[in-house]
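From the pipeline queue, job 12 of 40. The input is one protein chain; the requested action is below.

Action: predict structure.
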Amino acid sequence: MSQLIQIRHRIKAIQKTQKITRAMRLIAMSLYSKLERQRGHISEYMKEICTQNLPIIAESQHKSPIFFPEDVLDSSPLIIICTSSKSLCGGLNNSFLKFFEKNVFFEDHQRPSFITIGQKASDYIAKKKRCNHVLEIRDVSSSNIEEAQRKILDVICKSEKSYSSVTGYYSNLKNFFVQEPTREQLIPFNTTTENSNPKRQLVTYEQSSEMLAERAAQQTISVYVLHMLFQSYISENAARFIAMDQSSNNAKKYLEALALEYNKFRQSIITREISELSSNLD
């Protein structure tokens, strides 16, 4: 009888867990569907901004030390790490941090600074030594992604001393089932990307060349940061849906196995009681 009680408790516990995983799966799918509709618009917006701004920056004689640092030794790099804001994303964060450790190496003369997005990234950097943690954003969602973008841009553009480089690490959504860890260099500024348009029409601007180039570079970096945050967030929800769907399916298999085991024990007890009653009647 005690075995039946234990199996019954296990079944109830798995059923409760299954309800949670099903609910989280539905939430993740809902968020992903909403973000997927926005993904094309953000990509098109990024393409248009680069098409308009990169030729302006390339033609300008003004090279801001913020976007075009001259520190060839890269002594003060800024690293932006984007992980998931919440857990239960399967192996998304583990594979990302392995990719990060494999691709990041600092020499003795370098003094890196870090911006962390998501709880995993914050906890990871907190355990490291020689780390200047300049900004920590533990939660990114649709409601505060633009605020996070502005905070990151303020760190890059309003720092007392310009950073020698700015590099972002994030999960890039290749398709619904594949989230690829990605490294993207934001600074030094690259004006020779495929999005630039060398055949653009000649346009006369009222602003000075310095002001125009500075504003164009700032706007372009801002779009890159937004794209990076958005890709990380949509990858998180896709990975969470897959993880919760697998958990729900595994819970179903465990319940079927436990139900079969429970029925076997119950049937054996009934059979034993019937045989005992029959022997007493004899």
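Job complete. The domain at 24-242 is CATH 3.40.1380.10 (Pyruvate Kinase; Chain: A, domain 1).
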